[in-house]
Amino acid sequence: MVWLFALPVAVWLWAVHLPHERRAPALTFAGMVTVFCLAVPVAAGVGERSTSERVVETANSTAAATRPNPSEPAPSTAPTTTAAPPTTAPPTTPTTTAPPTTAPPTVAAPTSATPTTAPPTTAPPAPSGDVKALIGLLPVAAETDQDSYSRDLFAGWFDADNNGCDTRCEVLAAERHDSLPGLPEGGWLSAYDGYSTPDESELDIDHLVPLAEAWRSGASRWDPARRAAFANDLDAPESLIAVTAATNRSKSDSDPSGWQPPNTAHWCTYATDWVTVKLRWGLTADPAEVTALTNMAAKC
Q1: Contacts with 118 (C-beta within 8 Å, 6 or more apart), sequence order
Q2: Which of 10, 26, 56 marks a domain boundary?
Q3: 219 near 230, Cβ under 8 Å?
Q4: Nearest to 246 by CA among 287, 289, 203, 215
Q5: Is residue 46 part of a domain?
Q6: More confident call, 24 vs 277
Q7: What is the value of pTM for the model shown?
Q8: How many structural domains is the chain composed of?
Q9: Domain co-membership, 11 together with 153
Q10: How far apart are CA 273 and CA 267, in angstroms?
Q11: Residue 172 and residue 32 in one domain
């Protein structure tokens, strides 16, 4: 704090030694410095005194709070024992009867469970009757969406009843003959060309109405589940047929206006099955297709 008193003295000495014309402002400055230096210790003393007073007041308040009141009984030094709960049980609140602990009986899943890729219901049975009359029931319309077809839009073979045999396996099992001319131990007869074989690897499973043809005839507007059901339709034997790979691939995705089975004796059956599948699934037929079906039906 010594500098607070030395500073004004030095400033005053400096001011009085200045020339007369500069002395007045210097003396004014010296006075301001003197006032400042005197004010600093005064303010510090007041602040320290206020702080000390607050500390003393706080200590006094704390002591008063902790000092026992002579008018109040002294607190007992014995440990306080928590009162024991009443020995009588509280009244029982009625509760809802719990369900029985035994599990409900398990309902066995049907053996023909449909996989998640198949729709909940299959197509209804198609009308039966003379093939020429059935051809007249076909809704005639031009094919559409020809460029948007993809095989991936239809599901592949799946095991609908979870018996370890997928759609191809089921068709082969259903169409195998116990015996055939020249095949006493049995095998398969490819109706498209009349070829018999005991070797299933020579056979394809043909969608009688090809998937691409179905797409162009209305399946493009189906949901994936219905397309999966169509691709794996085991509910109607005419939908899928085991034939030689050669005839299946020569047919490709053609309708009857572009391909007929080489075995003309099968034309009546082929035309009837084609119309049955289309009616069952609500598919359309284009005019050229109707004409070809009518010509094939002449074999009936």
Answers
A1: 155, 158, 160, 225, 228, 229, 232
A2: 56
A3: yes
A4: 203
A5: yes
A6: 277
A7: 0.60
A8: 2
A9: no
A10: 10
A11: no
| HSE-CB of 191 using CA atoms within 13 angstroms | 18
Same domain membership, residue 142 and residue 254: yes
Three-class DSSP category at 285:
strand
Q: Is residue 69 part of a domain?
A: no
Lowest mean pLDDT among 39-43, 75-79, 163-167, 216-220: 75-79
Distance CA 12, CA 33 (A): 9
- Contact between 251 and 263 (Cβ < 8 Å): no
Same domain for 289 and 165, yes or no, is yes
Q: 158 and 13, same structural domain?
A: no
Residue 21 has a pLDDT of 66
Closest CA to 118 of 173, 156, 68: 156
Please give the torsion angle defined by the CA atoms of residues 179, 181, 184 and 190, in that order, rounded to the nearest 10 degrees: -50
Residue 18 lies in a domain: yes
The yes-or-no verdict on residue 46 having pLDDT over 50 is no
